[in-house]
Amino acid sequence: MFENVTVHEGANIGKNVKIGPFSVVYPNVYIKDNVTIGPFCIIGEPSINFYGGDNHNFAKTIIGENTVIRSHSVIYEDVIIGHEFQSGHRVTIREGTRIGHNSSLGTLCDLQGNLSIGNFVRLHSNVHVGQMSLIEDYVWIYPYVVLTNDPYPPMNNLKGVTVRKYAQITTSAIIMPGVEIGKNALIGAGSLVRKNVPEERVVIGVPGKDICSVRDLRDNNNAQIYPWKDHLKDFRGYPWQKKEDYV
């Protein structure tokens, strides 16, 4: 069916699916129409229980239509991904992850499982998302951000980070366990956030300090630029934008 590809019995492959060489698709994987999977990918990777016995029951894994998964990515069993998803290279998505529609993960992102990501979410490269995290729609998270989840390691009493709609967490920020980032909030590069951030607030520094409203920020022409939803003039397929306004 596919050259140098292993597709296990019990996998379901839709129409116009392309799978690169040396990839593996495990049982109970549902790959919907018009999906492209690069070489050396694993889809439906089993949990640790698989390696201790012969009678492993694979949990369902669903890859939505029009998805692109780039080379060397590993998606475990019990993962559900919506349509129009894109990944970079060497992405890891662990068990219990739920991802909405039109979202993307950059190269070397690490999703630790048992977490939820909404629609139109953009994670850039090298983002680590701990278990129990909740990321709502239209969130932007930039490279090397870490969402932690264990207040007293290694006690494993996990408290995930919550990121509300339209929030932005910029490069190399660290968000501590149980913290909530409010709607339209902006976290500055390299910040360490230990407390909840209210809606539309800017937090920067180590430890993070609330310095102003996002509405106080201006660009080089002294124009208001936040909340970004109201000012983004580059068409990216967001449902509130009309493509003809930007072409």
Question: Could you explain how this protein is built, in words?
Answer:
0% of the residues lie in helices and 29% in strands. The protein is an all-beta fold and 247 residues long. The model has no long low-confidence stretch (mean pLDDT 94).
Summarize the structure.
With 247 residues, this protein is mainly beta. It has no helices and 30 strands.
Which characteristics define this entry?
mainly beta
Overall average residue pLDDT: 94
Low-confidence stretches: none
Helix segment count? 0
Amount of helix: under 10%
Structural class: mainly beta
Largest sheet: 10 strands, parallel
Question: Could you tell me the radius of gyration in angstroms?
Answer: 19 Å
Number of strands: 30
Distance linking N and C termini: 41 Å
- The global form is globular
Sketch the topology as an H/E string, one letter per element.
Answer: EEEEEEEEEEEEEEEEEEEEEEEEEEEEEE
What fraction strand?
A: 25-35%
- For the biggest β-sheet, the strand order reads 1-4-7-10-13-16-19-22-25-28
Layout of helices and strands, plus pairs?
Elements: E1 6-7, E2 12-13, E3 18-19, E4 24-25, E5 29-31, E6 36-37, E7 42-45, E8 61-63, E9 68-69, E10 74-76, E11 80-81, E12 86-87, E13 92-93, E14 97-99, E15 104-105, E16 110-111, E17 115-117, E18 122-123, E19 128-129, E20 134-135, E21 140-141, E22 146-147, E23 162-163, E24 168-169, E25 174-175, E26 180-181, E27 186-187, E28 192-193, E29 201-204, E30 209-213
Parallel strand pairs: 1-4, 2-5, 3-6, 4-7, 5-8, 6-9, 7-10, 8-11, 10-13, 11-14, 12-15, 13-16, 14-17, 15-18, 16-19, 17-20, 18-21, 19-22, 20-23, 21-24, 22-25, 23-26, 24-27, 25-28, 27-29
Antiparallel strand pairs: 29-30
